[in-house]
Fold:
Amino acid sequence: MKILFATSEAHPLIKTGGLADVSGALPRALHDAGHDVRLLLPAYAPLLRKAGAVIARSELMLDGARVRVLETRLPGSALVVWLIDHPLFSEREGNPYMSPSGHPWHDNPERFTLFCRAAARIATDQAMLGWRPDIVHANDWQTGLIPPLLSLEHNPPPSLFTLHNMAYQGVFDRSTFERLRLPWALWHDRGVEFWNNLSFLKGGIAYSRFITTVSPSYAREIQTPAFGYGLDGLLRERQADVVGILNGIDEQEWNPATDPYLPTGYTPESLDTKPRLKALLQAEMGLPVDEAPLLVGLIGRMVEQKGIDLVLEALNHILYLPIQVVALGSGERRFEDAFRALALAYPDRIAVRIGYDEGLAHRIEAGADTFLMPSRFEPCGLNQMYSLRYGTPPIVHRVGGLADTVIHASDENLAKGTANGIVIDNADTLAVGWAIGEALHLYRDRPDHWRAMQRAGMQQPFSWAESAGRYVALYKRMLG
Structure:
């Protein structure tokens, strides 16, 4: 099949979160399975510097804007990447979505409408590329206008729309819809109109043949008011078309046996290597080198969704326990400052690095004893899968992909040998504190069970090949 995979970020070219990991891995898995895939991205300035050799393939006029289609390859693969080149993307440094002040770029509606218009032209072979896809696979709100725009074309290819995070919807006021000069045929309660606003995300949901989410549990959760962000009614109405497919992980990039970011590799049979990696991580982060305390790792956005406020409050109550914490991430200033303050107050117990460091992320996954991820909601989550693969039992909240991948260390599951982490049912401070204490108890007092949990996690399959196969099955259904 010919598949146009449209996304706003893809690792390793441009990344702000898990969407990039999926968009870098799934198209490659589809390509490796023999499908003709084109990965479509905006030509951001930082991306162009990473892209290597780029050639110009086509030029389009879109609502008065001159746009070029550039071609390159995804680094490390033969996968073709097409880039939509316009000054709105290529002459702007920094984050793809946010200004240096931490607020969304004021012209994001214009930027991603332009991207969607270009994608629709390519999908209908109006871009002079000599290639027409069988399937258009769009992702998150930045690509949400592609299916609506395609609906207005003659005999368009069918669309599949993947929801990576319902919390980000691309909602703008009606005047923005008018300013963008979008077709009025799309402005109705079954279209892009959402309480008299324009919703990019609703457009993707309403006009796609299938809607997928990145885990089975999240597919059910978004059909409830608690997780649906006002679109749960539409999703319930289309529940037969809502499918949850658990993300995979890049098992080459995240392989503790061959990880180039680690000084030494290890396998389920050589877990005795982990204490050495723990000591090296403690030294790197300026913590006392000591095997006795439970070393808790935390990587991710410092926002309420990830339960960072719960973590901070819980730590203030449990630092009498023999634990250390290593945190890597960035987000809301108040949470960054709170972590810095804790690290200053408890320099022997807390170490934090604000920002993102790929190598350090790998070393935390390998060197930590447990990984803390008490998200209030989590469409899929990748770090818990990385942790499982690295023999670092995660602590998670029973939501979304966390519920689908982590098996709680109950006495029954420990006896069966299926437990691989600790799962809490409530996202609150007491639950987070209890879970860290439970991890400490298992680590210190029940080492045989802890080792069994580590091995159970490391032996779980998280290959993208299986996930890609499920998408292919949906594509085939779309083509009848």
